[in-house]
Amino acid sequence: MRLLMIGPPGSGKGTQAALIAQHYGIEHISSGDLLRRHVANGTAIGRTVAECLRRGDLVPDDIVMDILRKPVEAATRRGGYILDGFPRTVAQAEAAYRVAAPLGTEVRIALYFTAGRAELIRRLLARGTQTGRTDDTENVISHRLDIFHQSAAPMRDYYTRRETLITIDGDRPVAEVTATAIAGLDRARQQLGLPLHSAPVQPGPGRANPKVSVFAATSGRATHATGLNR
Ligand code: AP5
What we know:
By secondary structure, the chain is of the alpha/beta class. Helix content is 53%, strand content 11%. It is built from eight helices and five strands; from the N terminus they run E-H-E-H-H-H-E-H-E-H-H-E-H. The protein has a five-stranded parallel sheet, with helices on both faces. Helix 1 crosses helix 8 (174-191). The chain is globular.
């Protein structure tokens, strides 16, 4: 099972990705977390992207593709992933498609979280106060939201045309948002003819067949695919 998660900063991508990943037994991969880890570790990539993150600008596509490739490959082998924070633009979605399509490692479902601007700012300022995340300041939050909104409409069009796009109101309690997302995902998978049970990362009680790929049944269909893998 391979899922994408898009939405403005603060809409709950990271929070929901962790819960949905746990529900389906797949991995949660966050482009933002990976980038922040590079910065914290002082790697060459981290030194290159630190200023982008501090300002709230998008990191160049080639760097993002590069840091995601290995984790996505590994998670695909282990049963699937939910990718939080990628793609940010149609250009990234198309670049990922060019890599994934020849291999049939397509992502068929994208989740799109919404919430009002005032609520997003409230959440991010609260987190900035609690955690000290350096891009959770008023000016940078505003810039991040503006950047997101520049690409939001083209991204929605892209996924509406090419994938099953599930739009979810993220301005509700966390557990309600999770339940809506899971119900929407199960419905979409039924409509697409995909099995309801996916391959777990670690087989556990009640998860009998870790080899089943939810996308195997449709990998030959002529739908546009987005994902990262080679
Ligand atoms: P990234 O880390 O992806 O940040 P973001 O998109 O700005 O998203 P956030 O993590 O701020 O919010 P979220 O939607 O995940 O919400 P969360 O669950 O955390 O990216 C950071 C930077 O990395 C970018 O600015 C860019 O520089 C770079 N980058 C990353 N990916 C890139 C890419 N593909 N291309 C180029 N550059 C890239 O929740 C936020 C807060 O709200 C939390 O405190 C949470 O507890 C709270 N909350 C969540 N849900 C609820 C709820 N339902 N009710 C109340 N509070 C809630």
